[in-house]
Amino acid sequence: MSVDAGGAAAFSIGELARRASTKVETVRWYEREGLLPAPARTAGGHRAYTRAHLDRLAFVRHARELGFPLDDVRGLLALADHPERSCATADRIARAHLDAVRGRIARLRALEEELARMVADCGQGRVAECRVIEVLADHSHANCLHAGGHGGPE
Amino acid sequence: MSVDAGGAAAFSIGELARRASTKVETVRWYEREGLLPAPARTAGGHRAYTRAHLDRLAFVRHARELGFPLDDVRGLLALADHPERSCATADRIARAHLDAVRGRIARLRALEEELARMVADCGQGRVAECRVIEVLADHSHANCLHAGGHGGPE
DNA sequence: ATAGGACCTGTAGCGGCTACAGGTTCAAGG
DNA sequence: CCTTGAACCTGTAGCCGCTACAGGTCCTAT
């Protein structure tokens, strides 16, 4: 490693990705998207990361695992950089996301019920009597789920 | 309406979309994707649909509302066209989708719990003490959800 | 010196639409 | 018959969050 950033040991993108349980391409993509600062480079042009990059990447990954969209992650990162500010915004972002997750759960539960009914009623005979196909083709039935929500099923 | 398909009244793409609670662009897109057969055209080149198209579109929309991916929809459509075949495949597609939906629900529930804990613990003070930011930044915490599943959170 | 991995940039693709831009056709009113 | 203007046409680009190439360069171990 030929580049030294502030006395700390630097490591390659592959190493960073491995330590953060991510893929190399994802790391580069986060850099292009502005979620991860561009690191120093070695003489040959390879990226050289520090501990600070790893911490930031871990933050991003964890937020993503919790399902926060990248725009939310950007906001949360900006807050994490300013510990003296109020955390009301972080709280708002998290609550809004929680609401979104709950909404998705509710819609998926409705789906689950309908699908379970469909497969339970299927007599495993010919398509002509198949409950699955019948339900899908049935016109009168077509709007029972759609009526509730505004977006797609999930 | 200048085009007559087998004696039935034909209608425009706007009319079709309205009757199927869909958008015009989506109908054209389904045609490009091979989910909806290309209809006859008027002298001026406008699409002229029949009842059969509406039935097929309704089938597709209903399957989509139930969350079936388009590849599944293609398979289900192919089966619906052959009533004499066994419906085992339809049943298999529906069961696999049901499993997928249940998996997603389980993952979202885990998310919901973690998010709820985060926002419940947030004292609404400064970012420095914010539980939301803390949890996201916490390294030791980072893999508790990831450990369970194989894909993303949803 | 050389092999073969890891790295580089840039671009395209996934699903399932949605949203333009820039043009043509249709239906209703005068 | 002529004019409006809404609806239609094709084609292309964008959304999210990556992922997967292609075609090259660099680094490390033997």
Give the helices and strands, then pairings.
The structure is a homodimer.
Chain A: H1 13-19, H2 24-32, E1 40-41, E2 47-48, H3 51-65, H4 70-80, H5 88-121, H6 131-137
Antiparallel strand pairs in A: 1-2
Helix pairs in contact in A: 1-2
Chain B binds a DNA duplex (30 and 30 nucleotides) through helix 2.
Describe the protein's architecture and organization.
- With 154 residues, chain A is mainly α.
- Helices cover 54% and strands 3% of the residues of chain A.
- Chain A is built from 6 helices and 2 strands; from the N terminus they run ααββαααα.
- Chain A has a two-stranded antiparallel ribbon with strand order 1-2.
- In chain A, helix 1 packs across helix 2.
- Chain A is elongated and about 70 Å long.
- The model of chain A is unreliable at 1-6 and 146-151 (pLDDT under 50).
- Chain B binds a DNA duplex (30 and 30 nucleotides) through helix 2.
The total strand number of chain A stands at 2
Major sheet of chain A = 2 strands, antiparallel
Classify the beta-strand content of chain A into a percent band.
under 5%
Strand order of the largest sheet of chain A: 1-2
Give the C-alpha Rg of chain A.
Answer: 24 Å
Poorly predicted tracts of residues of chain A = 1-6, 146-151
Structural class of chain A: mainly alpha
Q: Secondary-structure element order of chain A, as H and E?
A: HHEEHHHH
Approximate helicity band of chain A? 40-55%
What general outline of chain A do the C-alpha atoms trace?
A: elongated
Mean pLDDT level of chain A? 87
Main interface by residue count? A-B, 64 and 64 residues
Give the oligomeric state of the chains in this entry, treating copies of one chain as homo and distinct chains as hetero. homodimer
Number of helices of chain A: 6
End-to-end separation of chain A: 47 Å
